[in-house]
């Protein structure tokens, strides 16, 4: 553990850490390799906050190659207890509109081949992810979004695919029919790994598109990279403002169950 106690971290795009004051750059290594980029530590009001650019500060790491374990482990080494994560999502429902934000409450994992646990060698643990997103942070985020008068959804299930390609129409239709509201490439295993380290995790989706289009709607075109970038740029400002409102409202003491995620989960006897 690094001799620092940074309670809150943000994982996302580079637009956020430019708002931090007195920023220090820490290049660290973990048993799972190096994180996506340096861990940036800075002041936001009275709170010290850590930041990692998930895809690297120049966006050079595709979703299937993000070092998820190293990122979470690096933040764990700094003593982080709460993570606020942002990322672009495609909509699978007409009412989840591009330009809006969404606060996730569930995910469905469709990825394959990703290293998705810290318990894969001499210790066996089965951590519950029945409620993968911190209820305490979700309530704070919803209140903050209302204060900011944002167009947002206070819940939603995100289907997580490996990427980097976008979905076929058939795949998109299946994800929607199985109950997902949005689609993304990075929420898994990030959220699950945070739970294994008993961190509170908040996922905020920046809705940029309608994925492969919506069934029965010929007027809605499939997603394109240029459209994602255009809408994402507008949403970043909204999400940044939201995070700036969320962080001061986070209490010093945790009252949720995230800090007890390992209770009864480890079954290896030493």
Summarize this entry quickly.
25% of the residues lie in helices and 22% in strands. It has 270 residues and is of the alpha/beta class.
Structure description:
It is a single chain. The protein starts with 7 loop residues before the first strand and ends in a 21-residue tail after the last helix. The chain has five helices and eleven strands. The protein has a single domain (8-260), classed as Rossmann fold. Strands 1, 2, 3, 4, 5, 6, 7, 8, 9, 10 and 11 form an eleven-stranded mixed β-sheet that branches. With 270 residues, the chain is of the alpha/beta class. A hairpin with a 2-residue loop joins strand 3 (39-44) and strand 4 (47-53). The protein is globular, with a radius of gyration of 18 Å. The chain has helices at residues 68-77, 135-147, 169-177, 187-196, 225-249; strands spanning 8-12, 21-26, 39-44, 47-53, 82-91, 101-103, 106-109, 152-153, 157-160, 182-184, 200-209.
Give the secondary structure arrangement, pairings included.
Blueprint (H helix, E strand, L loop, with lengths): L7 E5 L8 E6 L12 E6 L2 E7 L14 H10 L4 E10 L9 E3 L2 E4 L25 H13 L4 E2 L3 E4 L8 H9 L4 E3 L2 H10 L3 E10 L15 H25 L21
Parallel strand pairs: 1-4, 1-5, 5-11, 6-8, 7-9, 9-10
Antiparallel strand pairs: 2-3, 3-4, 5-10, 6-11
Helix pairs in contact: 2-5
Report, as a whole number of angstroms, the end-to-end distance.
Answer: 22 Å
* CATH superfamily caption: Nucleoside phosphorylase domain
Task: Enumerate how many helices there are, as a single number.
Answer: 5
- Structural class from helices and strands? alpha/beta
Give the topology string: H per helix, E per strand: EEEEHEEEHEEHEHEH
Gyration radius, rounded: 18 Å
What fold name stands as the CATH topology?
Rossmann fold
Low-confidence residue ranges: none
Instruction: Let me know the number of strands.
Output: 11
Largest sheet: 11 strands, mixed
Per CATH, which architecture?
3-Layer(aba) Sandwich
Molecular shape: globular
Please indicate the percent range of residues in DSSP E strands (runs of 2 or more).
15-25%
**What do the pLDDT scores average to?**
90
Helix content: 10-25%
Instruction: Using the coordinates above, name the CATH class.
Output: Alpha Beta
How many domain modules?
1
């Amino acid at each position: 553990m690094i001799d620092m106690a940074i309670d809150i971290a943000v994982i996302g795009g580079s637009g956020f850490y430019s708002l931090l004051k007195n920023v220090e750059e820490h290049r660290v290594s973990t048993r799972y390799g190096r994180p996506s980029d340096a861990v940036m530590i800075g002041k936001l009001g009275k709170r010290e906050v850590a930041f990692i650019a998930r895809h690297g500060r120049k966006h050079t790491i595709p979703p299937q190659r993000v070092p998820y374990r190293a990122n979470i482990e690096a933040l764990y080494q700094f003593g982080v207890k709460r993570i606020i994560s942002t990322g672009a999502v495609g909509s699978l429902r007409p009412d989840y509109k591009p330009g809006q934000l969404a606060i996730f409450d569930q995910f469905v994992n469709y990825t394959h081949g990703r290293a998705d646990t810290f318990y894969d060698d001499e210790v066996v643990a089965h951590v519950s992810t029945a409620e993968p997103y911190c209820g305490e942070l979700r309530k704070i985020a919803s209140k903050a979004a209302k204060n900011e008068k944002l167009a947002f959804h206070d819940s939603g299930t995100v289907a997580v695919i490996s990427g980097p390609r976008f979905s076929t129409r058939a795949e998109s239709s299946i994800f929607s029919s199985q109950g997902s509201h949005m689609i993304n490439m990075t929420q898994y295993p990030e959220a699950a790994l945070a739970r294994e380290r008993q961190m509170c995790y908040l996922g905020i989706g920046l809705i940029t598109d309608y994925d492969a289009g919506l069934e029965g709607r010929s007027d809605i075109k499939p997603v394109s990279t240029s459209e994602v970038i255009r809408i994402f740029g507008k949403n970043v400002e909204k999400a940044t403002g939201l995070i700036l409102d969320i962080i001061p409202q986070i209490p010093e003491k945790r009252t949720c169950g995230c800090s007890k995620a390992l209770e009864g989960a480890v079954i290896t006897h030493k």
